[in-house]
Amino acid sequence: MKELSISDTTIEIYEYVFPQFINPANTLFGGKMLYMISQASALSANRVAQGPVVMGSMDSVDFIEPVNSGDTLIFRSRVQATFNSSLEVGVTVFKRTLNGELKVVTLAHFGYVAIDENGKPRKLNIKVVPKDEKEKLIYEWGLKKRTYRLERIKNRKLEVNDIDISKKPTYSLYSSKLVFPYEIIYSNFMFAGYLFEKIDELGGILSVQYARNPTFTASVDNFDFFSPVKLGDILHFYLGINYVGNRSMEIGVKVIKEEALTGKRYKVASSYMTFVSIEPLKPFNPWKDYEVERWKSAEGRKLLRIERAKKFKECIKQNPLEPIC
Questions:
Q1: To 5 degrees, how large is the angle CA 301–CA 302–CA 306?
Q2: Structurally, what CATH architecture does the domain formed by 2-150 represent?
Q3: Pairwise pLDDT comparison (104 vs 186), residue with the higher score
Q4: Could you state, in order of their start, the residue ranges of all structural domains in the chain?
Q5: DSSP string of 287-301?
Q6: Is 75 exposed, middle or buried (0-12, 13-18, 19+ CB in 10 A)?
Q7: With a threshold of 0.70, does the pTM exceed it?
Q8: 238-250: string of b/e by CB count within 10 Å (b at 16+)?
Q9: Which CATH number fits domain 161-309: 3.40.50.800, 3.40.50.300, 3.10.129.10, 3.20.20.30?
Q10: What is the pLDDT of residues 70-116, one digit of tens each?
Protein backbone atom coordinates (compact mmCIF):
# COMPACT_ATOMS: atom_id res chain seq x y z
CA MET A 1 0.00 0.00 0.00
CA LYS A 2 1.35 3.40 -0.98
CA GLU A 3 1.97 5.86 1.87
CA LEU A 4 1.59 9.64 1.78
CA SER A 5 2.40 12.27 4.36
CA ILE A 6 -0.26 14.84 5.23
CA SER A 7 1.73 17.53 3.42
CA ASP A 8 1.65 15.34 0.28
CA THR A 9 -2.15 15.58 0.30
CA THR A 10 -2.34 19.37 0.79
CA ILE A 11 -3.80 21.59 -1.90
CA GLU A 12 -4.50 25.33 -1.94
CA ILE A 13 -7.24 27.03 -3.92
CA TYR A 14 -7.54 30.79 -4.36
CA GLU A 15 -10.89 32.46 -4.98
CA TYR A 16 -11.59 36.15 -5.55
CA VAL A 17 -14.74 37.44 -3.84
CA PHE A 18 -16.78 39.14 -6.53
CA PRO A 19 -19.67 41.56 -5.83
CA GLN A 20 -22.23 38.96 -6.99
CA PHE A 21 -21.22 36.72 -4.07
CA ILE A 22 -22.25 39.34 -1.50
CA ASN A 23 -25.42 39.12 0.61
CA PRO A 24 -27.69 42.03 1.73
CA ALA A 25 -25.56 42.38 4.89
CA ASN A 26 -22.67 43.29 2.56
CA THR A 27 -20.61 40.18 3.37
CA LEU A 28 -19.96 36.93 1.50
CA PHE A 29 -23.08 34.78 1.14
CA GLY A 30 -22.62 31.89 3.59
CA GLY A 31 -23.93 29.33 1.12
CA LYS A 32 -21.28 30.34 -1.39
CA MET A 33 -18.57 29.89 1.24
CA LEU A 34 -19.90 26.42 2.11
CA TYR A 35 -19.93 25.52 -1.58
CA MET A 36 -16.29 26.58 -1.99
CA ILE A 37 -15.20 24.71 1.15
CA SER A 38 -16.99 21.58 -0.07
CA GLN A 39 -15.25 21.86 -3.42
CA ALA A 40 -11.80 22.18 -1.83
CA SER A 41 -12.39 19.22 0.49
CA ALA A 42 -13.70 17.03 -2.34
CA LEU A 43 -10.66 17.79 -4.49
CA SER A 44 -8.26 16.71 -1.74
CA ALA A 45 -10.22 13.56 -0.95
CA ASN A 46 -10.53 12.65 -4.63
CA ARG A 47 -6.80 13.15 -5.20
CA VAL A 48 -5.85 10.75 -2.39
CA ALA A 49 -8.61 8.22 -3.06
CA GLN A 50 -7.65 8.14 -6.76
CA GLY A 51 -11.28 7.90 -7.70
CA PRO A 52 -14.79 9.09 -6.85
CA VAL A 53 -15.65 10.14 -3.29
CA VAL A 54 -18.83 11.34 -1.59
CA MET A 55 -19.25 13.41 1.55
CA GLY A 56 -20.65 11.58 4.54
CA SER A 57 -20.52 14.36 7.13
CA MET A 58 -19.53 17.96 7.73
CA ASP A 59 -18.71 18.92 11.30
CA SER A 60 -19.85 22.24 12.78
CA VAL A 61 -18.53 25.34 11.00
CA ASP A 62 -18.13 28.73 12.72
CA PHE A 63 -17.43 31.87 10.71
CA ILE A 64 -15.29 34.10 12.92
CA GLU A 65 -14.27 36.74 10.36
CA PRO A 66 -16.49 38.55 7.84
CA VAL A 67 -15.53 38.29 4.17
CA ASN A 68 -16.07 41.29 1.91
CA SER A 69 -16.12 41.99 -1.80
CA GLY A 70 -12.54 42.29 -3.07
CA ASP A 71 -11.07 39.89 -0.50
CA THR A 72 -9.11 36.88 -1.69
CA LEU A 73 -9.99 33.55 -0.10
CA ILE A 74 -7.39 30.82 0.35
CA PHE A 75 -8.65 27.28 0.94
CA ARG A 76 -5.96 24.99 2.36
CA SER A 77 -7.33 21.46 2.23
CA ARG A 78 -5.59 18.26 3.33
CA VAL A 79 -6.39 14.66 4.13
CA GLN A 80 -5.70 14.18 7.84
CA ALA A 81 -6.22 10.40 8.06
CA THR A 82 -7.34 7.44 5.96
CA PHE A 83 -9.14 4.22 6.87
CA ASN A 84 -10.53 1.24 4.96
CA SER A 85 -12.71 3.28 2.59
CA SER A 86 -13.08 6.62 4.40
CA LEU A 87 -10.99 9.76 4.67
CA GLU A 88 -10.83 12.62 7.16
CA VAL A 89 -10.39 15.99 5.45
CA GLY A 90 -9.68 19.35 7.05
CA VAL A 91 -10.00 22.74 5.33
CA THR A 92 -8.61 25.99 6.72
CA VAL A 93 -9.98 29.13 5.08
CA PHE A 94 -7.97 32.36 5.11
CA LYS A 95 -8.89 35.75 3.74
CA ARG A 96 -6.44 38.26 2.35
CA THR A 97 -7.86 41.78 2.37
CA LEU A 98 -7.06 44.50 -0.15
CA ASN A 99 -4.41 45.89 2.23
CA GLY A 100 -2.69 42.48 2.41
CA GLU A 101 -3.86 41.45 5.88
CA LEU A 102 -4.20 37.65 6.28
CA LYS A 103 -6.75 36.19 8.72
CA VAL A 104 -8.40 32.84 9.40
CA VAL A 105 -12.09 32.86 8.49
CA THR A 106 -13.04 29.32 9.49
CA LEU A 107 -11.97 25.69 9.75
CA ALA A 108 -14.07 22.81 8.47
CA HIS A 109 -13.77 19.05 8.93
CA PHE A 110 -15.34 16.40 6.71
CA GLY A 111 -15.78 12.65 6.51
CA TYR A 112 -15.57 11.27 2.95
CA VAL A 113 -16.12 7.79 1.54
CA ALA A 114 -14.44 6.40 -1.57
CA ILE A 115 -16.98 4.77 -3.90
CA ASP A 116 -16.90 2.49 -6.94
CA GLU A 117 -18.79 2.81 -10.21
CA ASN A 118 -21.93 1.51 -8.51
CA GLY A 119 -21.77 4.03 -5.67
CA LYS A 120 -20.67 1.42 -3.10
CA PRO A 121 -17.77 1.93 -0.64
CA ARG A 122 -14.40 1.11 -2.22
CA LYS A 123 -11.24 0.03 -0.41
CA LEU A 124 -8.44 2.61 -0.47
CA ASN A 125 -4.97 1.61 -1.64
CA ILE A 126 -3.27 4.69 -0.16
CA LYS A 127 -2.51 5.32 3.50
CA VAL A 128 -1.80 8.69 5.09
CA VAL A 129 1.10 8.49 7.56
CA PRO A 130 2.27 11.58 9.53
CA LYS A 131 5.94 12.38 8.87
CA ASP A 132 6.75 14.59 11.88
CA GLU A 133 5.40 15.85 15.22
CA LYS A 134 3.31 18.58 13.64
CA GLU A 135 1.63 16.10 11.31
CA LYS A 136 1.05 13.72 14.22
CA LEU A 137 -0.98 16.44 15.92
CA ILE A 138 -3.05 16.93 12.76
CA TYR A 139 -3.49 13.16 12.40
CA GLU A 140 -4.58 12.74 16.02
CA TRP A 141 -7.03 15.61 15.65
CA GLY A 142 -8.53 13.86 12.61
CA LEU A 143 -8.88 10.63 14.62
CA LYS A 144 -10.60 12.52 17.44
CA LYS A 145 -13.04 14.15 15.02
CA ARG A 146 -13.86 10.77 13.49
CA THR A 147 -14.47 9.21 16.92
CA TYR A 148 -16.90 11.99 17.85
CA ARG A 149 -18.67 11.65 14.52
CA LEU A 150 -19.10 7.87 14.70
CA GLU A 151 -20.70 8.27 18.12
CA ARG A 152 -22.96 10.99 16.72
CA ILE A 153 -24.26 8.88 13.85
CA LYS A 154 -24.48 5.51 15.59
CA ASN A 155 -28.28 5.53 15.17
CA ARG A 156 -28.05 6.16 11.43
CA LYS A 157 -30.53 3.37 10.57
CA LEU A 158 -33.19 4.96 12.76
CA GLU A 159 -32.46 8.50 11.59
CA VAL A 160 -33.02 7.70 7.92
CA ASN A 161 -36.71 6.97 8.61
CA ASP A 162 -37.27 10.10 10.70
CA ILE A 163 -39.49 11.98 8.26
CA ASP A 164 -42.03 13.41 10.71
CA ILE A 165 -42.68 17.11 10.05
CA SER A 166 -45.98 17.44 11.93
CA LYS A 167 -44.76 19.88 14.61
CA LYS A 168 -44.68 23.04 12.54
CA PRO A 169 -42.94 26.09 14.07
CA THR A 170 -44.71 29.45 14.31
CA TYR A 171 -42.09 30.98 12.02
CA SER A 172 -41.30 28.47 9.30
CA LEU A 173 -40.46 28.04 5.63
CA TYR A 174 -40.98 25.15 3.23
CA SER A 175 -39.43 24.66 -0.19
CA SER A 176 -38.76 21.82 -2.60
CA LYS A 177 -36.62 21.19 -5.66
CA LEU A 178 -35.69 18.55 -8.20
CA VAL A 179 -32.05 17.41 -8.39
CA PHE A 180 -30.75 18.36 -11.85
CA PRO A 181 -27.77 17.00 -13.85
CA TYR A 182 -25.63 20.11 -13.25
CA GLU A 183 -25.71 19.35 -9.49
CA ILE A 184 -24.26 15.85 -9.89
CA ILE A 185 -20.67 14.90 -9.07
CA TYR A 186 -20.21 11.08 -9.37
CA SER A 187 -22.45 8.03 -9.94
CA ASN A 188 -25.53 10.29 -10.04
CA PHE A 189 -24.80 11.59 -6.51
CA MET A 190 -25.62 15.24 -5.80
CA PHE A 191 -22.60 17.41 -4.92
CA ALA A 192 -23.01 18.44 -1.26
CA GLY A 193 -21.94 22.02 -1.99
CA TYR A 194 -25.14 22.66 -3.93
CA LEU A 195 -27.21 21.35 -1.03
CA PHE A 196 -25.42 23.60 1.47
CA GLU A 197 -25.89 26.58 -0.85
CA LYS A 198 -29.64 25.95 -1.09
CA ILE A 199 -30.09 25.41 2.65
CA ASP A 200 -28.24 28.60 3.51
CA GLU A 201 -30.27 30.55 0.94
CA LEU A 202 -33.53 29.34 2.51
CA GLY A 203 -32.25 30.02 6.02
CA GLY A 204 -31.35 33.53 4.90
CA ILE A 205 -34.84 34.08 3.53
CA LEU A 206 -36.51 32.95 6.76
CA SER A 207 -34.15 35.01 8.94
CA VAL A 208 -34.79 38.17 6.90
CA GLN A 209 -38.54 37.57 6.95
CA TYR A 210 -38.39 37.54 10.74
CA ALA A 211 -35.79 40.29 11.23
CA ARG A 212 -36.92 42.61 8.43
CA ASN A 213 -33.22 43.53 8.36
CA PRO A 214 -30.20 42.14 6.51
CA THR A 215 -28.79 39.00 8.16
CA PHE A 216 -25.68 36.85 7.73
CA THR A 217 -24.70 33.27 8.57
CA ALA A 218 -22.62 32.89 11.74
CA SER A 219 -22.47 29.09 12.04
CA VAL A 220 -23.76 25.77 10.76
CA ASP A 221 -23.90 22.81 13.15
CA ASN A 222 -22.97 19.21 12.35
CA PHE A 223 -24.43 18.04 9.06
CA ASP A 224 -24.58 14.25 8.68
CA PHE A 225 -25.96 12.58 5.57
CA PHE A 226 -28.26 9.68 6.43
CA SER A 227 -29.45 9.00 2.91
CA PRO A 228 -27.74 9.75 -0.43
CA VAL A 229 -29.26 12.28 -2.80
CA LYS A 230 -29.28 11.33 -6.46
CA LEU A 231 -30.24 12.72 -9.84
CA GLY A 232 -34.00 13.02 -10.19
CA ASP A 233 -34.75 12.95 -6.47
CA ILE A 234 -37.17 15.55 -5.10
CA LEU A 235 -35.82 17.39 -2.08
CA HIS A 236 -38.12 18.84 0.57
CA PHE A 237 -36.74 21.52 2.90
CA TYR A 238 -38.42 22.29 6.23
CA LEU A 239 -37.04 25.23 8.22
CA GLY A 240 -38.18 26.82 11.45
CA ILE A 241 -36.99 29.37 14.00
CA ASN A 242 -36.16 27.70 17.32
CA TYR A 243 -34.68 30.60 19.28
CA VAL A 244 -34.35 34.37 19.07
CA GLY A 245 -31.86 36.43 21.05
CA ASN A 246 -30.95 40.09 20.87
CA ARG A 247 -29.50 39.93 17.36
CA SER A 248 -29.02 36.21 16.68
CA MET A 249 -31.47 33.44 15.93
CA GLU A 250 -31.24 29.67 15.54
CA ILE A 251 -32.95 28.10 12.55
CA GLY A 252 -33.47 24.35 12.38
CA VAL A 253 -33.52 22.63 9.00
CA LYS A 254 -34.64 19.16 7.99
CA VAL A 255 -34.10 17.79 4.50
CA ILE A 256 -36.19 14.90 3.21
CA LYS A 257 -35.78 13.27 -0.17
CA GLU A 258 -38.58 11.77 -2.20
CA GLU A 259 -37.75 9.16 -4.81
CA ALA A 260 -39.64 10.52 -7.80
CA LEU A 261 -40.56 7.13 -9.30
CA THR A 262 -41.57 5.34 -6.10
CA GLY A 263 -42.75 8.14 -3.82
CA LYS A 264 -40.68 6.72 -0.95
CA ARG A 265 -39.32 9.31 1.46
CA TYR A 266 -36.14 9.26 3.56
CA LYS A 267 -34.39 11.74 5.80
CA VAL A 268 -31.27 13.20 4.19
CA ALA A 269 -30.01 15.32 7.06
CA SER A 270 -30.93 17.88 9.71
CA SER A 271 -28.96 20.69 11.26
CA TYR A 272 -29.09 24.06 12.99
CA MET A 273 -27.91 27.38 11.58
CA THR A 274 -27.22 30.63 13.39
CA PHE A 275 -28.07 33.88 11.63
CA VAL A 276 -27.22 37.35 12.93
CA SER A 277 -29.24 40.47 12.22
CA ILE A 278 -27.71 43.89 11.62
CA GLU A 279 -30.32 45.41 13.94
CA PRO A 280 -31.85 44.14 17.23
CA LEU A 281 -34.57 41.52 16.77
CA LYS A 282 -38.17 41.67 17.90
CA PRO A 283 -38.90 39.27 20.80
CA PHE A 284 -40.35 35.84 20.14
CA ASN A 285 -42.31 34.14 22.94
CA PRO A 286 -42.96 30.50 22.05
CA TRP A 287 -46.30 29.21 23.29
CA LYS A 288 -46.64 25.72 21.79
CA ASP A 289 -45.30 23.00 24.10
CA TYR A 290 -42.90 21.61 21.50
CA GLU A 291 -41.67 25.11 20.66
CA VAL A 292 -40.88 25.76 24.33
CA GLU A 293 -38.84 22.53 24.37
CA ARG A 294 -37.04 23.54 21.17
CA TRP A 295 -36.28 26.94 22.70
CA LYS A 296 -34.70 25.33 25.78
CA SER A 297 -32.62 22.97 23.63
CA ALA A 298 -31.53 25.88 21.42
CA GLU A 299 -30.38 27.86 24.47
CA GLY A 300 -28.11 24.92 25.38
CA ARG A 301 -26.72 24.75 21.85
CA LYS A 302 -26.08 28.49 21.88
CA LEU A 303 -23.86 28.13 24.98
CA LEU A 304 -21.97 25.29 23.30
CA ARG A 305 -21.42 27.42 20.18
CA ILE A 306 -20.12 30.34 22.24
CA GLU A 307 -17.66 28.03 24.01
CA ARG A 308 -16.68 26.38 20.72
CA ALA A 309 -15.99 29.73 19.05
CA LYS A 310 -14.00 30.90 22.08
CA LYS A 311 -11.72 27.84 21.91
CA PHE A 312 -11.39 28.28 18.16
CA LYS A 313 -10.22 31.88 18.51
CA GLU A 314 -7.76 30.93 21.26
CA CYS A 315 -6.36 28.19 19.02
CA ILE A 316 -5.87 30.65 16.17
CA LYS A 317 -4.05 33.12 18.44
CA GLN A 318 -1.51 30.41 19.26
CA ASN A 319 -0.81 29.65 15.60
CA PRO A 320 -2.56 32.04 13.20
CA LEU A 321 -0.98 30.61 10.03
CA GLU A 322 -1.29 26.88 10.82
CA PRO A 323 -4.07 26.36 13.38
CA ILE A 324 -4.73 22.76 14.44
CA CYS A 325 -8.21 22.92 15.95
A1: 115
A2: Roll (3.10)
A3: 104
A4: 2-150, 161-309
A5: -SHHHHHHHHHHHHH
A6: buried
A7: yes
A8: bbbbbbbbebbbb
A9: 3.10.129.10
A10: 999 999 999 999 999 999 999 999 999 989 899 999 999 999 999 99
